[in-house]
Amino acid sequence: MNNLDFRENLLQIKPYVPGKPIDEVKRELGITDVIKLASNENALGPSPAGVKAAEECLKGANIYPDGAAFVLRNKLAERLALKPENIIFGTGGDEIIFYFAHAFIKDTDNIVVPACTFSEYATSALVMAAGVKKVPMTKDWGPDLEAMLKEVAENTKACYITNPNNPTGTLIPKADIEAFMDRLPERVILFLDEAYFEYADDQDYSDMNKWIAEGRKIIVLRTFSKIYGLAGLRIGYALAPAPIIDIMERVRLPFNTSLIAQAAAISALDDREHVAGSRKSNSEGKKYLYGEFDAMGIYYVPTNANFIWFDSGRDCVKVFNDLMKLGVIVRSGNIFGAPTFLRVTVGTMEECRKFVAALKTVLGKE
Ligand SMILES: Cc1ncc(COP(=O)(O)O)c(C=O)c1O
């Protein structure tokens, strides 16, 4: 097309490639029995209370949702012992990442991110024509905080830490996060992504309330997509000191989170049975997979989330494709810069068993 005028910085961005959908694999490979352990979705399904609330609210679908999400905001504020003005909602954590970039990142800025982490921090900064400094991981696959600090420059606007980290599942204790923040120049904002917060073994690993009360330059991302199982409804949120939220609210779309998503989230918050069941199922699946990896002599990183990062010792794209032919969709590590690694979501026990059987076949470990 001639004369298509656009922001050329966008050409640096590779469109996001999501985990392959089940139907696509069935169509392409002509197989019927396919499981997806590729996108860290909740193996137990959505919160039943959330689904019920979503269904019930459909009758009111002719009315715009409450853009400010008053009921959900107040309920969450009370639950987290924060003020309503410390919260902003997005259509998933993804939208929060982009709101943050639109609100704070200028084209003269850069951001500092771990090399092996969620892609959207870098993408959102590239949309703003900002620079992205990627910092190699530690040998244990965690973000290298020391090395990240060294990369902070005059124009660094934000550092990103995913805790637990996606795709590696590592967790940084709160004392280390705080020490990192203490050493950041005052102008730098810490973007702390806690999308998998509820899966961590130690629920006391984040001092989010204290940091927000102290007015630190911090923003904490959480989501209803993971433990609450509402990924398909798209609702997530961020927690931060009120002045940060105030700036981000200026770029939020008026009715971003839907009526259905808000209703589901309100009810899912009280669905303690589903949350507890999801944690339990995840921890059983994790233990089983650790045992099988150990038995196969496969290196993996112990996880604090609902996925495991492991080294196949082979070309991960081939392993990925071979697993798919056996009806198991995982995530290949090349997209994270690790050509022999893969990430598998902890599924139900049945799904975990199917994955292990397929992996044994693919790696010739039967
Ligand atoms: C680390 C991390 N942050 C944020 C997100 C965004 O999730 P959502 O937009 O579904 O809330 C994901 C999704 O997989 C993630 O892994």
Mean pLDDT across all amino acids: 96
- Count every beta strand, where a strand is a DSSP E run of 2 or more residues: 13
Order of helices and strands: HEHHEHEHEHEHEHEEHHHEEHEEEH
What is the radius of gyration computed over CA atoms, rounded to a whole number of angstroms?
21 Å
Features:
single chain, alpha/beta, Aspartate Aminotransferase, domain 1, Aspartate Aminotransferase, domain 2, 2 domains, 4-stranded antiparallel β-sheet
Secondary structure topology:
Layout: H1 22-29, E1 35-36, H2 48-57, H3 70-80, E2 87-90, H4 93-104, E3 110-114, H5 120-127, E4 131-135, H6 145-151, E5 156-162, H7 174-183, E6 189-193, H8 208-213, E7 218-223, E8 236-239, H9 242-249, H10 259-269, H11 272-296, E9 300-301, E10 307-311, H12 316-325, E11 328-329, E12 331-332, E13 341-345, H13 349-363
Parallel strand pairs: 1-11, 3-4, 3-5, 5-6, 6-7
Antiparallel strand pairs: 2-8, 7-8, 9-10, 10-13, 12-13
Helix pairs in contact: 2-10, 3-10, 4-5, 11-13
The structure holds pyridoxal-5'-phosphate.
How would you sum up this structure, described in words?
The protein is an alpha/beta fold and 366 residues long. It has 2 domains: 13-45 and 273-363, Aspartate Aminotransferase, domain 1 (Alpha-Beta Complex), CATH 3.90.1150.10; 48-269, Aspartate Aminotransferase, domain 2 (3-Layer(aba) Sandwich), CATH 3.40.640. Helices cover 39% and strands 15% of the residues. The chain has 13 helices and 13 strands. It has helices at residues 22-29, 48-57, 70-80, 93-104, 120-127, 145-151, 174-183, 208-213, 242-249, 259-269, 272-296, 316-325, 349-363, and strands at 35-36, 87-90, 110-114, 131-135, 156-162, 189-193, 218-223, 236-239, 300-301, 307-311, 328-329, 331-332, 341-345. Strands 2-8-7-6-5-3-4 form a 7-stranded mixed sheet, with helices on both faces. Strands 9-10-13-12 form a 4-stranded antiparallel sheet, covered by helices on one side. The chain has a two-stranded parallel ribbon with strand order 1-11. Helix 5 (120-127) links the parallel strand 3 and strand 4 (131-135). Helix 4 packs parallel to helix 5. The longest helix has 25 residues, at 272-296. The relative contact order is 0.17. The model has no long low-confidence stretch (mean pLDDT 96). It binds pyridoxal-5'-phosphate. Pyridoxal-5'-phosphate binds next to helix 4.
